[in-house]
Amino acid sequence: DAKTTQPTSMDCAEGRAANLPCNHSTISGNEYVYWYRQIHSQGPQYIIHGLKNNETNEMASLIITEDRKSSTLILPHATLRDTAVYYCIVRVVGQFYFGTGTSLTVIP
Amino acid sequence: EPEVTQTPSHQVTQMGQEVILRCVPISNHLYFYWYRQILGQKVEFLVSFYNNEISEKSEIFDDQFSVERPDGSNFTLKIRSTKLEDSAMYFCASSEALAGWDEQYFGPGTRLTVT
Predict the structure, then answer these.
(1) Do A93 and B108 touch (CB under 8 A)?
(2) Yes or no, beta carbons of B104 and A96 under 8 Å apart
């Protein structure tokens, strides 16, 4: 599976949009981009995933560049409960490889 | 909304003892996984399981580990003789299919402490 690069940490003001970037320049054509988050030591929580097109669900939006070498997770109105470690993972099938992720802190 | 459940939430055991961690995957899911996370480290894959067989396992999943689906609802991870370094959070996950487009849903985890 392709490697991803994410910033170690980010801050976001409560109520503002949180934009979390991810680079995956070696992604192959059949690899999906997934986002999970982990709050404290809880189980990773699925957020969203996509292959080529931008995706939106009730939690977030995923913007994938046309060349698929990078993506951005957008939390439209961050709340304090969104403080977590966010993982960007690219995957074909099977297990997920979790990196170190981005530690997002939402500030009141 | 259906969810993966795990018991116990916290297990304390002595080195050399056997432990069994239990998981109830989402009911219509067919693929099951165990991951672990040592405190302060990454989430690591241990094993995947489908149709009563191990599909894939990592180097961590040695002979001390085993998995079983003893009935139609439970999925268990057994550690035969625990070591201090087995202390970690253990997460069970399940998915409906084994495909790139299918997400895995994780349980809340079991914290295993080996003393």
Answers:
(1) no
(2) yes
pLDDT in tens, A90-103: 987 778 888 899 99
**In B, which residues are within 8 Å of A29 by CB distance?**
none
Question: How far is it, in rounded angstroms, from Cα B53 to Cα B38?
Answer: 26
| Yes or no, beta carbons of A44 and B106 under 8 Å apart | yes
How many CB pairs lie under 8 A apart between chains A and B?
Answer: 58
pLDDT per residue over B25-83, tens digit each? Answer: 999 899 999 999 999 999 999 999 999 999 999 999 999 999 999 887 899 999 999 99
DSSP state of B52: T
